[in-house]
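re: ur question from yesterday

yeah so i grabbed the chain u mentioned. its 276 aa long if i counted rite. heres the sequnce exactly as i have it in my notes:
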Amino acid sequence: MNIALVGLAVIGGLIALTLTLAIVIGMRQPSRRIHRNRTAIFAALRQQQPGARLSTGNVLWTSTALFTLIGEGEPYWTDYLILPTGTVNVAELTSQPGVSDAFVAEIALTPVPPLVLGLLRLRHLLGLTRRPAAPLPTALDHIEGRRDVLPTTDAIAEAQALPEDMSLAMMNFLDYPTLAKGDAADGRAAYLRYGRQAFKAVHAVGGQFLFAGTITAVLVQPRSPDWQVPWDDVAAMIYPDPTAIFAMEQFPFYRRALAERDAGLKRTRVIATRAY
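ran it thru and got these structure tokens back, copy pasting raw so excuse formatting
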């Protein structure tokens, strides 16, 4: 009996230690700096010199566009920023020299508990989840579903041409239909069902959650007609190398969720960026 109690105490201690460690790791994730508040300012800028320093005050996150992962054409926006709500002079931000166009919005951030982030990161660090060893594809023609929400062959080639040790942040613009195809729920609900599986897959290949937010107010409309159609959400994930994102489709649980993504999206654009 005493041995059993000792065993239970040891197991309980290990569980408590694991949870504590997970919370500590979760609190140190890149997203925590952004998610200290419930809202933030998201800005997409078109600059003559991509990556040029701006007089913006406290910047929580910034990145510079590299190439279009999903969608047509070259990236229109050159730079992306997340700034604290209430500290941004929007007119000053968008009128700085070199800024030719801007999209600025207030977003309601989607909270993710540090424990969840920490557990997913800890599982990867311990080798309990890892990137599949199968060769990376040169195209995604074998995946069933919508072609317009998949990376193009050119995007795969561009990613594979980048340095292997370069981490990327994938900037997602999301537009949902009123109703998901074949589903009574709205598009966002269908996409979130996909998102839960994508969230696990991102962390399983060594990536990390950065931010996700619902656009609650557009503060500056872009001049570009192509970007004036409203977006519903914006989100970004960090990947440890340029090709990690293409390994996600090798997880069966992720492939099963792709139908929810197809149903939940009206349109999307995903831009590969160099995060700072």
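noticed a couple things. Helices lie at 2-27, 31-34, 90-94, 114-125, 153-161, 187-204, 244-247, 252-264. also The beta strands are 39-47, 61-70, 79-84, 99-109, 168-175, 208-220, 233-239, 267-275.
anyway ttyl
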